[in-house]
Design a protein that fits this description.
mainly alpha; 96% helix
Length: 147
């Protein structure tokens, strides 16, 4: 460079400064485009995040409603089961009472039949004795007439 004169040196410097200015301008424009792209991406991300959050909130609300309905159903089911158990207990008591009544009635019937047979046997035995006496009387009357 020492062989070059000052004006050539200045021209080379101006040329280099011009290229550097172009490179800086290109870099600045590239950075601005990147910043614009980044801003658009951030905006899309924010919008997507807002939409996702809204959907998530809706999903959570639906899930809460579902859980509330499920709890209500479980409560109704528990109440139904409790009523069913109570009904079964009452039915069991009724069946037990009915069985006891039938057993008691059967015992009474057996007692009545046994007493009835005993009384019928006693009446039958009295009638047999009475018939035997009547036969004896008739035989005596027949013999008395025949004599």
């Amino acid at each position: 460079m020492s062989e070059l004169n000052d004006s050539e040196k200045i021209e080379i410097l101006i040329d280099q400064v011009g290229r550097m200015t172009e490179n800086i301008t290109e870099l600045r424009m590239g950075m601005q485009a990147s910043v614009i792209d980044l801003r658009e991406s951030v905006a899309e991300l924010r919008s997507g995040t807002r939409e996702s959050m809204a959907e998530l909130r809706e999903g959570v609300a639906e899930l809460r409603e579902g859980v509330a309905e499920l709890r209500s159903s479980v409560t109704e089911l528990r109440e139904g089961v409790a009523e069913l158990r109570e009904g079964i207990a009452e039915l069991r008591e009724s069946v037990d009472r009915g069985f006891e009544e039938v057993r008691s009635g059967f015992d009474e019937l057996r007692s009545l039949v046994t007493t009835g047979f005993s009384e019928l046997k006693a009446v039958s035995e009295r009638q047999e004795r009475n018939i035997d006496r009547l036969v004896g009387i008739v035989e005596t009357l027949i013999q008395a007439r025949s004599n």
